[in-house]
Amino acid sequence: MSRPCSTTTAPAPAAYPLGAPTDPAGAARGNLLTPAQAGEILKVKTSLLERWRSTGGGPRYIKLSAKVVRYSQIDIDAFVIGRVMSNTAQ
């Protein structure tokens, strides 16, 4: 006697947690932002984004070439979520 085939499906993958790699599918869909667009979303100047890239204090970024930098929307969102505070002692 053979066993019947199971028709269960695997659970859907969870959203990328903080610290997870940039969403490669998002990059393939064209969801890459220029520094100006990322700055507009974060309400900061592109010069601050440049400083963060050199000091490591800002959102993760993608370096496509020596002069082309892009940001993933998911990395911008993770950066903002990582800075949510509940009191001034944090």
Low-pLDDT windows of residues:
8-19
**N-to-C series of helices and strands:** HEHHEEH
How many extended strands?
3
Largest sheet: 3 strands, antiparallel
Structural Rg: 19 Å
Which term fits the overall shape? globular
What's the tally of helices? 4
What is the average per-residue confidence, as pLDDT, rounded to a whole number? 80
Structural class: alpha+beta
Q: State the share of residues found in helices, binned by percent.
A: 25-40%
- Distance between termini? 63 Å
| Beta strand % | 5-15%
Task: Kindly report the spatial arrangement of strands forming the biggest sheet.
Answer: 1-3-2
Please tell me about this protein's structure.
The protein is α+β, with helices and mostly antiparallel strands and 90 residues long. The chain has a domain at 28-81. It is built from 4 helices and 3 strands; from the N terminus they run H-E-H-H-E-E-H. The chain has helices at 24-28, 35-42, 46-55, 73-81, and strands at residues 32-33, 62-63, 69-72. It has a 3-stranded antiparallel beta sheet. The chain is globular.
Write the layout of secondary structure elements.
Blueprint: H1 24-28, E1 32-33, H2 35-42, H3 46-55, E2 62-63, E3 69-72, H4 73-81
Antiparallel strand pairs: 1-3, 2-3
